């Protein structure tokens, strides 16, 4: 009787987990012994790191052909419940019905979402670049500004949050606004960051480069301040200051999928399941967590994975391999990923590329821009739908050569 691996999520980690499990299954000649099911709303990989760019609805890659050539069965639906005692998941199907799937091994790759804190008016009036439909709503809104009369509200964009996503989003905005409103418009792009420095989580290494780029793009910084309310005409800060703006973009922090809360196991402050070296969830030998749903150690120096595709893709390869290895009586591979790089898009000014956890700048400006473009256009996309190529892409330990 065949065994079943169920993978929840078709993001970077879920896709690579499916390919990795299929690779080991093929190497063992066990296609008839193990079924691999991947459950997600659609067989599409959303290229989430690019949603700050133009035309965000195009930032996706189809997966159906890739799953077909690797004998991965795709199930369209939303996972409603994980029952760890019965080893089942409940799926809301597109038809409106529910289905129950039994698993022998479960890989939770359900990802993360941007957190919306309880700020007055935030949900009603702010935009996001977290999901394709949300980013497209912002894209369409910016284009609609051309139909409005000139005003401070129309010509001002407030980006809430000066982290990775906030910086990349803000850096794109001046050129985008000028293309819509014309060169004569009195454009303002303002980043509001509650920390005292821009890019607080990026550390001091790339900060001078980021500050130089933002200055050259005319982007204003308001640091050490928080937004306390948002309305149709702008934002109010915690010191009472008012910024008139009809375009507020929230880029606040991420939190793991709520599905992690259905598994009785330790979680970190971001809601991620704290996993063992083989990415297994402690106390649940049949469950692996991966991608943004997992908090794993990347090396022996105490560094933990971040919520980014740089970690999600390798995590997926290890989790899929280990889930299959468990069923095929093969040894598990401990996850490790010693190399870490940071590449931040800084709009028309260029980019900044850093090496290591201390983020030592090795390239900046126009010299770094082609690296960022190659990452965004090549490295983070799934392989072509050729069986040999697809299975090779699932090998644990692969990292992009950048």
From TrEMBL:
Show where the FAD/NAD(P)-binding domain sits: 4-313
Q: Which SUPFAM superfamilies match?
A: FAD/NAD(P)-binding domain
Question: GO MF annotations for this entry?
Answer: oxidoreductase activity
User: What cofactor requirement does the entry state?
Assistant: FAD
Q: What is its EC number?
A: 1.6.5.-
Q: Which InterPro entries match?
A: FAD/NAD-bd_sf (IPR036188), FAD/NAD-binding_dom (IPR023753), NADH-Q_oxidoreductase (IPR051169)
* Keyword set, alphabetical order: FAD, Flavoprotein, Oxidoreductase
Q: Which family does it belong to?
A: Belongs to the NADH dehydrogenase family.
What is the recorded name of this protein? Answer: NAD(P)/FAD-dependent oxidoreductase
Say which species the protein is native to.
Teichococcus globiformis
